[in-house]
Amino acid sequence: MTPRQRRWLFAIAAAGLVACYLWAFAGLPGFGHYPGPYGPEILKNAIAQTNATGVVSAINFDYRGFDTVGEEFILFTAAAGMSVVLRKLRGEREGRGEREGRAKSPYDRARNRDLPPTSDAVRMPTLALVGPVVLIGWWLAAHAQANPSGGFQGGVILATAFMLVYLSGEFLAFRRLSPVALLDCAEALGAGAFVAVGLAAVAQGLPYLDNFLPLGQVPGAVSSSGTIALISFFVGIEVAAAFTLIIGELLEQTLLVRAGGR
Prior knowledge:
Layout: H1 3-26, H2 38-50, H3 55-63, H4 65-99, H5 106-112, H6 120-142, H7 151-167, H8 171-177, H9 180-203, H10 227-260
Helix pairs in contact: 2-3, 3-4, 3-10, 4-9, 4-10, 5-10, 6-7, 6-10, 7-8, 7-10, 9-10
């Protein structure tokens, strides 16, 4: 197939994809005109049944909790798979670099890199934002029962705090704050604890992920919503660890590629 034919084939495929998307969008209901029965029923009963005023979190971690387990393990599997592949590649590169007399690890390369230092205009704001970002992320992960937040959102923001440390020019500080062994354990703990909450319900003769903890007295309070708040907390740990692990592995791979190009 010639390059011209490949371009035409790509253009036809892209046009077909756009046509299918437009066809699908044309069949969607208008904004504010949800036709199904589930939304109004959940809005009417969620607070009374769960004591969670954050109805989105009640849906994610209670009504459709089994689906959320699958979504969490998609991220878990992606982070674990990427780590295994990149660590294997890094081991091969480090072995080749050792034979050729180059630095043996990304940490050696980070110490000896000749890149220009991070300017104070970037360094100071990023370091100043680390504390507030950690606080916001932790608050979102721990208050899913009270407002539109949850472990997924909070975990991503917590991982952003570690990225800010790197952006300030402190790769070694980033690695000291996020050791790989600790991240691996935290990711496994968060994902495993989510599953364990569901199994604890089964052990009591209840459906998997049934909300078996006390719901509290005040809707939306920190102590309300039973397992919803607990699951959100564990999800926040897993998501933060997974994204921080992904960021760290990609940064170390970048150091290897840069060093290999010298």
